[in-house]
Design a protein that fits this description.
Elements lengths: L5 E5 L2 E6 L17 E4 L1 E7 L14 H8 L10 H17 L2 E8 L7 H14 L2 E6 L6 H4 L3 H4 L2 H7 L7 H15 L2 H4 L1 E3 L1 E4 L6 H14 L3 E5 L3 H10 L5 H7 L7 E5 L5 H10 L2 E4 L1 H6 L7 H6 L4 E3 L2 E2 L8 H11 L13 H8 L1 H6 L16 E4 L12 H7 L6 E6 L2 E5 L2 E2 L4 H13 L2 H10 L4 H12 L16
Parallel strand pairs: 4-5, 4-13, 5-6, 6-7, 8-9, 9-10, 10-11, 11-12
Antiparallel strand pairs: 1-2, 3-14, 14-15, 15-16, 16-17
């Protein structure tokens, strides 16, 4: 924390920082005396597609959870307005709590369509958020993505799940052309594209290579879920001749400084060395990892190797909020279970850095998440008299452990105030929330109906999960408790 000073914004960026700065004629003055000016938070990993499903599902392992999360039923295909509203729900929640930027690894059920992509991007544009948007769409069949399942399923279900997804490589590349030609660089660069393979085991090598080419050509972040669960580690043992998904990606030549490796829980030392050598960023989603029982990422081992780390919410249905403050608190605490040496537990400045500068680095936005001259003017004014900061004992510790977003007075993105005193300035949030309640409330019955479809395959997924859980992979990322007598 510095002594009181002035900060000048010009053309969406921080122009000057100092004392008694000359004020240009006609400039808007925001008086912040007695409050804290800090960088906006960056949600480094997010799926906006389920913003309307908070609290809907119980905690379950990822591979079973996903059956309920995104059943490919035509009755649940969103209209453009529904896609706009569900995206806007996330924008409203993030901006009110001081999250100014987001990386949306958006998935589309049953497949992406140009009008739905446009609706998602339009919501970010209208709200005032800074966003990177990718199309998280698997290309291969369900049987190609998971171990054991091919042998467990009866013939009829095996034939059904052997079918590839409804969007092939050429279709998806055309949709990326639409995303990038229409939206990349919109709103003076506030809205940009990214690419996503969803996960290495979910796409063909040819599509993986095409996405890497797009990422390199346009300098786009590349999102890839890797080793989120033990089952994904077992997949490498069973289906990749023992190679982990990190090693598999590196051997194909796609592990680079542009890649956001999402989760990276079930990594070993060799994986960590590959990540460090490639300069890839790891997106850490601790609340989601606990909610789905996935495990605890090796935080200190990554920091010891200099691996960049950002923080993310993951998604509303696996976090039940879209609040980076709760993510910071969880990241501050969960790693205290993994090492008896308390000097190696996360420090508050490490947590705040991951939630700001770390996210800006992952987004490939120079200076984002900092207060440096020339950085994007994405800022929060925080009330230092709020209960979470009273009395002010240790600022960084209280920001990472005590604050929940309620102390944020003003949120600015690209030099524009987009939320003031808890109210968004660009949209009528009351009308939007009322419309969302009406539309999505009417779909609850359809979602319940979709849950019933899962029963056909659930026993086989449960058996697959059990078989993977029983495999010895040489290390552990969950905290086993002794059995009671």
């Amino acid at each position: 924390m510095t002594a009181p000073c002035d900060l000048m914004v010009s053309e969406g960026r921080i122009a000057r920082v100092g004392n008694d700065l000359a004020i240009p004629q006609g400039a808007e003055i925001v008086k912040g005396a007695g409050n804290l000016l800090m960088p906006g938070l960056v949600n480094g990993h997010f799926h906006s597609s389920v913003n309307h499903m908070k609290g809907r599902l119980p905690s379950m392992p990822l591979e079973i959870f996903m059956l309920y999360e995104c059943p490919e039923l035509e009755v649940l295909r969103p209209t453009p307005r529904e896609a706009y509203l569900r995206t806007m729900l996330g924008c409203i929640e993030m901006l009110k709590c001081g999250t100014t930027s987001v990386q949306d690894d958006c998935f589309f059920v049953p497949r992406p369509e140009p009008d739905i992509i446009d609706a998602v991007a339009q919501a970010y544009l209208d709200s005032g958020m800074r966003a990177r948007l990718a199309l998280d769409q698997p290309e291969l069949s369900e049987l190609d993505k998971l171990p054991y399942l091919r042998d467990l399923l009866p013939a009829d279900l095996r034939a059904e799940l052997a079918q590839p997804t409804s969007a092939g490589r050429d279709d998806l590349l055309e949709l990326y052309d639409h995303l990038l030609s229409r939206w990349h660089g919109a709103a003076n660069g506030r809205i940009k594209g990214a690419v996503s393979c969803s996960a290495p085991q979910r796409v063909s090598p040819a599509y993986f290579a095409a996405l890497d080419d797009l990422s390199r050509q346009h300098d786009l972040p590349f999102y890839a879920h890797m080793l989120e669960t033990k089952l994904q580690r077992v997949f490498g043992h069973q289906c990749l001749n023992g190679a982990s998904l990190v090693r598999h990606t590196a051997e194909m030549g796609f592990l680079s400084d542009r890649m956001n490796v999402i989760h990276a829980i079930w990594v070993d030392d060799a994986d960590l060395d590959l990540l460090a050598d490639s300069k890839a960023t790891v997106a850490h989603n601790p609340v989601s990892n606990l909610r789905l029982g996935s495990g605890i990422m090796p935080w200190r081992a990554m920091h010891d190797r200099g691996i960049p780390v950002c923080l993310g919410v993951d998604e509303a249905i696996a976090d039940d909020a879209i609040n980076m403050w709760s993510v910071m608190k969880t990241a501050s605490l969960v790693h205290c279970l993994t090492d008896p040496d308390y000097t190696r537990w996360p420090a508050p400045d490490e947590i705040l850095r991951a939630a700001t500068i770390g996210g800006g680095h992952a987004m490939r936005e120079q200076g984002l998440g900092s207060l440096a001259v020339g950085a994007p003017a994405d800022l929060n004014l925080v009330n230092l008299n709020a209960i979470s900061l009273t009395p002010l004992s240790n600022l960084t510790r209280q920001l990472s452990l005590c604050e929940n977003g309620s102390a944020v007075l003003t949120t600015m993105v690209a030099g524009e105030i987009v939320c003031r005193n808890g109210c968004l300035t660009r949209v009528d949030e009351d009308d939007l929330l009322a419309e969302a309640r009406q539309i999505f409330g009417a779909k609850i019955g359809l979602m319940d109906q979709a849950d019933g479809v899962v029963a056909r395959v659930l026993p086989y997924y449960q058996k697959m999960y059990q078989m993977a859980s029983e495999q010895d992979v040489g290390f552990e990322r969950r905290v086993p408790l002794p059995k009671t007598r």
